[in-house]
Structure prediction request, 336 residues.
Amino acid sequence: MRKLKFFIISFCLMLAVAVCGSGVTKADAAARKYYIGGMTAGFTLSAGGAEVIGLSEVSASDGIRRPAEEAGIRVGDTILAVDNIRIKTIADLNAALERSGGEPVTLKVGRGGETADVEITPVKDKKSGRYKIGVLIRDTLSGIGTVTYIDKESYRFGALGHAVCDENRNSLEIADAKVYLCTVIGVNKGMRGKAGELRGLFMCDTVLAKAEKTCNCGLYGTFDKSYDFSHAELVEAAPIAEATIGKAVIYSTIDGTCPQQYEINIVKVDSDNRENKNFVVKVTDERLISETGGIVQGMSGSPILQNGKLIGAVTHVFLNDPTRGYGIGIEHMLAE
Prediction:
């Protein structure tokens, strides 16, 4: 039986992201072939340390203690280091607290883009015998997004089309190198003033790719060569200069694992935009509007094709109109 892991959190879709490269020429783009993506994938990324998601009590031999709360630690803080030793995982933090032997330690704490040193004394829990500071933490975030393309020759892939961030818009690092196929089991429809989202399950026995890099233009890595590309369409990429206002299509997965083609209109082309908003698109496909309301979280990375060529990817949704959104030019993604 396949092991399925529940979808935890969608990557943030409403982002203003910066262009990452100088682009590619028309000749460069036409020289290579790309498999169209559109499949939904599950990613596991680092929280950048031990993120505090709750404060708790410690049952010490002399009563109830609250070391973290008393030291000024807050929910949303990230513990980056203990006594100048980098903390990346929950295990790292637990090991550091055990090494303290109950003596004071200095935590480097991240909050709102800034860091501060906080002195705290771990307390020995009378039940477990382990040293604790009274925090509930997580070290990874999981989410779903859409693969944009796979290079036919190198199997390099690009996905998402925007920076990979948590709910507080903090950039995330690669933690788990594996990218899993994700099956979409439902949709929270988008509506005016509220972004919708895809709901999915990780198919943990189906590894799609190895993720190796994140940047403002998305997530990148190498696709597994064993993936069945027999039904994937091969196309050329085209620079933003070839895009025109008018009909186009996107490929997205809103049910199961199979991408479908949906009609859109490109209503604006802005090759000079510095926030990865090179296109304004409007969903015109009644099937997609009926099922999702338009563009929803999890669809970021959906490839945009016009005149049979890959020109970009969906990246943002308009909160006041979920049938409209932004797209990044594929030349900027390929530059990475």
About this structure: Residues 90-100 form the longest helix (11 residues). Residues 1-27 have pLDDT under 50 and may be disordered. The chain has two domains: 4-46+141-334, 57-133.
